[in-house]
Amino acid sequence: MEKGKMLLVSLGQGAGNIVDGLLSRNPRYNGLFLNSSLFDIKPLKNADMSKNVYLYPGTDGSGRDRNKSKEMIKDNVNSIGTLLSKYPLTEVVVVFTTMAGGTGSGAVKTFIQIVKKVLPKAKVNVVAILPSLKEDELAFKNTIECWNDINSIMDLISDVKFVDNNKRNTYKEINNEVIESLDLAYNIIGIHADGSIDNKDSFRINTAEGSGLILKLYDGLKDVKTAIDLAIKNSVFVQPDVYYCDYLGINLKVDGYDPYEVSKLFEVYKSTYITYNNKNNIVVLGGCETPTESINLIKMALDEKNKRKLSRNKKRSVIIDIDTDGIDNKEDIDGLNNSELNDLFEDNYAF
C-alpha cells in the first residue's frame, strides 16, 4: 500500500500510543489523534496540536463512560468531517481504538460513519484492542458494547484486526508487537525473480473484507508447519476460528522456508501472493471470518463477575459483643432514639 495515501487515526489514549509508534517507524504515514484529554496527547512524539490533533473542546476525558464519548463525537461531527476532508487522496483509513475504555470505544461507530460520508471511496480498516481477562467488570461491559458497535457497521469496514492483550505481560510489549507487525504487513511488497508483490497486491491483501491476521515466522525451525504453529501461538492478534482467507500474502527470506509449503497450510479462496526479502518472514491473511472465541471468553468473564456480585451480601455495620465476665459493669449511655432526637430539634428548627 502507498503510505502517503494511508491515514492512521487513533481514538483515545491507548490507540494513540500505537499510531505514535507507527509514525515514528515510518514518517510516510499520515496520522491523526482524536482525544478528549490533553493529558493523553502530551507524551506522544508525533502529535502536533497545530497539525494532526483534534481535542474535543471543553472536555477533560471520558472517565471510561461510553455514552459520554458518544455525545462528545456527535457534538463534533462537522468539525471532524472538515478535518477529514483535508485528506482527499486517502485510499485507506485505519482506525485504532481500545475497546475497554471510553473515548475510543464509544466513538468508533460514529467516527467510521463520518469517514465513509466524507471519504466515500476510501477503505476503512479497524484495529481494535481487547482487554486482558484480568480487567474489571466495566472493561468487559465496554468491550462487548464496542464489539457490537463495530459489528453493526461491518458493511462499512474492510479489514478488522483484534488485538489480544492476554498475549504479553505489559501494554508496552503488546504495543511494540502490534506496531512492528502492522508495519511489516503494510510493507509486504517485494520484487524478486521468483515472485513479486506490488502496492496493488498489498492493498488487496490488507483491505480484504473480513478479519485480518499477521504472522511472523522465526528462523531455523525444523519445518514450515512448526514455524506457522509457533507464529500462531505467539501472535498478539486474535486468531480466527478457521484459517480460511480470501487473500494470502507471503514474504519470506531468500533460501529459507518454502512459501509453497506455507500456502498449503491455509485455505485460500481468491489469490496467493509470494515474494522474497533478506530480513523478515511475514505471512498476512486477508478476508478471514470474524473470530469469536476471545469475545466469548470476555462475555464469560463478565457473566462470572456479575454472578459473584449478585451473590455478594455486603456488610456495612457489624456490632461486636464485649465479654464483660469478671469486669465491673458501668451504665452504658446509648445514642438517641428518633423520638428523643425530634424533641431536641423541635424548638430550634422548623420541619
UniProtKB/TrEMBL annotation:
Molecular function terms, GO-annotated:
GTP binding
InterPro entries listed in its UniProt record = Tubulin/FtsZ_GTPase_sf, Tubulin_FtsZ_GTPase
Residues of the Tubulin/FtsZ GTPase domain? 58-157
Q: Which Pfam families match?
A: Tubulin
Organism equals Clostridium cellulovorans (strain ATCC 35296 / DSM 3052 / OCM 3 / 743B)
Entry protein name: Tubulin/FtsZ GTPase
Lineage in the entry? Answer: Bacteria, Bacillati, Bacillota, Clostridia, Eubacteriales
